[in-house]
Structure formats: structure tokens, C-alpha cells
TrEMBL record:
Domain named Response regulatory: residues: 3-119
Protein name (database record): Response regulator transcription factor
Single GO biological process annotation from the record: phosphorelay signal transduction system
Stored SUPFAM superfamilies: C-terminal effector domain of the bipartite response regulators (SSF46894), CheY-like (SSF52172)
Pfam family for this entry, one: Response_reg
Modified residues annotated as 4-aspartylphosphate in this record: D54
Record carries keyword Magnesium: no
Positions in coiled-coil regions: none
Length: 217
């Protein structure tokens, strides 16, 4: 089962999201929070696999909660679920350790896909957000490519293979099958890759892989 904690200050939104998640028999909403501070407290109590965070919440907003969860409970995977798709929010969420960024206006199936992908160790961006991230990267592409290639050059050939598959959106389990490795070995490679790239999470590593030319659009 994928254990999910849902945090949103609007009870009607929580009920709607919970009903969508309930259509997947392998997803279980173990707790609900009304604000970011309560989300952190409940995450410590229930140890969910995935935390869905709204951005605008009282006491502690979703972005601040994501950053605190990344520090205190790095094993918990955070997905931002919001109506706000401004670039500033996307950049802050990913920089603060979020593994996914979903829009409430998206197709309900996208929520299920995103939760499953993130729980499986991959990163997931709403397609609309992903298009903007790629477009933004193209702005300073030459400079960013050079910097990304310099960082990737510090990796071993095997680590570059793993990074390319991370950039393609594969989970640790999928990468292990593709490269005929133990999943624990892949996790160790990913940990080393994040450290050498100075990346906070898989999303940032995936962006570096794209910029370095390891994966296509």
C-alpha cells in the first residue's frame, strides 16, 4: 500500500482529493492536515510514503513545510498539489525537496499517476509545468549545458547511465531491471549522484541530465 498524508486548509478540497485517491485500491490516505505545521506533526506520527501539500495554508505554508520535511524526514516524498502554477512556486518547491508538482485543475488520473510515480522513487511534474520548465531551461541553454556537462563529467560511466534513466523518469526499481542491478545498488548510485551534482532531489538531477544532453525532451 502507498500511505498518503493529505494537507489542505479546505475541507471540501481534501474530501475531493481523498475520493480520487480512494479509487486506487493500493493507495491509503492515513491522515489529513489543515495546515503545514499539522502536516509535519502527522507525518512524524504516521510515517506516510507520500505527503500531498497545498501551497497556501495557515500557520505554515506548503513550501515551508516541504523544506522542513526534507530536513526532518527525508524518506518522506513530498508532492505539491496546488492551483498556483507560477514559476516562482515551482522553483521553490523543487528546490526545497519536493518530488512532484501537480495542479488541482488537472485530470484526476494525473493525481493517481503522480502519487504512484513519486512513491516508486521517480519524480513527476504536471505536463503543463514540465513544458514550462523545459522552455525556461532553453532560455540560457548554452551556459546551462556547459555547466551541466562539467558536473556530469565528475560521474563514473555507470553513474551517468543511472542519471540518464533518472532523467527519463524511471524509478529505482525500473532502473535496476534495465541495468541488471540490485535495487539497493541503484539507490546507492542515486545517492552518490545527488551528492556529486549538489542536487537536493531527483528532479534537480533529472534537469541536469536533460541539460547535459543525456536525455531528450
Amino acid at each position: 500500500m502507498i500511505r498518503v498524508l493529505l494537507a489542505d486548509d479546505e475541507a471540501m478540497i481534501r474530501a475531493g482529493v481523498r475520493s480520487i485517491l480512494a479509487t486506487d485500491p493500493e493507495i491509503d490516505v492515513v491522515a489529513e492536515a489543515e495546515d503545514g505545521r499539522q502536516a509535519i506533526e502527522l507525518a512524524a506520527e504516521h510515517r506516510p510514503d507520500v505527503v500531498l501539500l497545498d501551497i497556501r495554508m495557515p500557520r505554515l505554508d506548503g513550501l515551508a513545510a516541504a523544506a522542513e520535511l526534507a530536513r526532518a524526514q527525508p524518506e518522506v516524498k513530498v508532492v505539491v498539489l496546488t492551483t498556483f502554477d507560477e514559476d516562482e512556486f515551482v522553483a521553490r518547491a523543487l528546490g526545497d525537496g519536493a518530488r512532484g508538482f501537480l495542479l488541482k485543475a488537472a485530470d484526476p488520473r494525473e493525481l493517481l499517476i503522480g502519487v504512484r510515480a513519486v512513491a516508486d522513487g521517480a519524480a513527476y511534474l504536471s505536463p503543463r509545468i514540465a513544458q514550462r520548465v523545459i522552455a525556461g531551461m532553453r532560455g540560457g541553454q548554452a551556459t546551462r549545458r556547459t555547466a551541466a556537462r562539467d558536473r556530469v563529467a565528475t560521474l563514473t560511466p555507470r553513474e551517468r547511465e543511472v542519471l540518464a534513466l533518472v532523467g527519463a523518469g524511471l524509478s529505482n526499481q525500473d532502473i535496476a531491471r534495465r541495468l541488471f542491478l540490485a535495487e539497493g545498488t541503484v539507490k546507492a548510485h542515486v545517492s552518490t549522484i545527488l551528492q556529486r551534482l549538489s542536487a537536493n532531489n531527483r528532479v534537480q538531477a533529472a534537469i541536469t541530465a536533460y541539460e547535459a544532453g543525456l536525455v531528450d525532451d
